[in-house]
Design brief:
Elements: E1 18-19, E2 26-34, E3 38-45, E4 54-55, E5 61-67, E6 69-74, E7 82-87, E8 91-94, E9 100-104, E10 108-114, E11 122-123
Antiparallel strand pairs: 1-2, 2-3, 3-10, 4-11, 5-8, 5-10, 6-7, 6-9
Length: about 150
């Protein structure tokens, strides 16, 4: 993870944005990290790139698709994957435990707000008969970072 820039305090807060770290699918830019409350990020996904098929133990995340077409794979609760293509102006939301994967059909920009757990992920490609994908690995619950 890249170092978090220092922030000056004052009567109003104007957070300094920073790239969270290298991502094979594009960029993850922290816009606001409100300790113990939420994170607000800008995700820039390159066409053809996708994240891992995963679920979160603690994290709840929602995203507004600002630009592009995003393919979302998700388990509706019956152990199978469904697919939905979402376009600019639509919202996606993943509660705790929801299996999901995002794939950029075109270059995409997504504004994401989530509970402040930066590395809460359990990868599950193999459980759904998919090859293990690239990207960040599963984390142990004790290693989850609260932003």
């Amino acid at each position: 993870m890249l170092a978090k820039p220092k922030q000056e305090n004052g009567p109003a807060q104007f957070p300094i944005t920073y790239e969270v770290g290298p991502r094979p699918w594009g960029k993850e830019i922290m816009l606001v990290a409100s300790k113990g409350n939420y994170t607000f990020k800008r995700l820039e996904m390159k066409a053809g790139a996708k994240g891992g098929l995963q679920w979160h133990r603690k994290k709840v995340e929602s995203g507004y698709i600002l630009e592009g077409t995003l393919r979302v794979r998700f388990d509706p609760g019956n152990g199978t994957l469904e697919v939905r293509d979402c376009k600019a102006g639509e919202v996606v939301s993943f509660p705790q435990g929801a299996v999901h994967q995002e794939e950029a059909m075109t270059d995409c920009v997504i504004l994401e707000v989530s509970t402040p757990y930066l590395n809460d992920r359990v990868r599950v490609e193999e459980a759904y008969g998919m090859p293990k994908g690239e990207g960040l690995p599963s984390t142990n619950i004790d290693d989850v970072i609260d932003a």
